[in-house]
Design goal:
Strand content: 25-35%
CATH superfamily: Thiolase/Chalcone synthase
Largest sheet: 8 strands, mixed
Number of domains: 1
Number of helices: 7
CATH topology: Peroxisomal Thiolase, Chain A, domain 1
Helix content: 25-40%
Order of helices and strands: EEEHHEHHHEHEEEH
Radius of gyration: 17 Å
Shape: globular
Number of strands: 8
């Protein structure tokens, strides 16, 4: 089925590498995610002090989104009618473990509010929305793997119903030191049709 919408740009972060529209734009030898993601932040000259207080899932999603949205040359002083539709397989499991450890520590019981706030996976959507003034629809789905068919149909329906002018979609997953972000932007115009087949091809490239 032909889509009326198109993928305008996409970003992939995994294996210590950042790619934009299929081209490698950054690589770092840091094996630990905290070091790697800090280097990505500096390399792309992202200026957002709250970044350093985020959990790992939010850092990953935030930078993948930041790279795409900066490439779109958006006016960050104006509200953007861009919806966000994310997915992953582990929800906020990495942060949940930290919170659980604090609860179970009877000798030093003090669950951190700074950790607890990130025990919902959609908090990363909030961080992106604040930076880019995105106040449209947003959803976070949990699947075993990237569900390209669901992403395509759900985001296309948001555009059909005029609930957004564009949709930032994709997969952002973090569990211990295993991480991957694959985000893409859907709009009316572009070169690549927004379909299950094209999403899957871009994801696997």
């Amino acid at each position: 089925m032909t889509s009326n919408y198109h993928i305008t740009s996409h970003c992939h972060i995994k294996n210590q590498t950042v790619s934009l529209n299929g081209v490698e734009v950054f690589h770092d030898d840091s094996e630990l995610f905290p070091d790697f993601i800090k280097h990505v932040y500096k390399a792309f000259e992202t200026k957002y002090p709250k970044f350093f207080k985020m959990d790992n899932l939010s850092k990953l999603a935030f930078l993948a989104a930041d790279i795409i949205l900066k490439n779109e040359n958006l006016d960050t002083q104006k509200e953007q009618n861009i919806a966000i539709v994310f997915s992953n397989k582990a929800a906020s499991l990495d942060t949940d473990r930290l919170h659980q450890e604090a609860i179970q520590n009877s000798s030093n019981y003090f669950p951190s509010p700074a950790v607890f706030v990130y025990t919902l996976p959609n908090i990363c959507i909030g961080e992106i929305s604040i930076k880019y003034k995105l106040f449209s629809e947003n959803s976070f789905f949990i699947f075993d793997t990237l569900n390209a068919e669901h992403l395509a149909s759900y985001s296309n329906s948001l555009l059909d119903m005029k609930k957004a002018d564009k949709v930032l979609c994709g997969w952002v997953d973090f569990d211990e030191n295993h991480y991957e972000a694959f985000l893409y932007l859907v709009a009316k115009n572009g070169k690549t049709a927004h379909s299950k087949e094209h999403i899957t091809t871009l994801y696997n490239t």
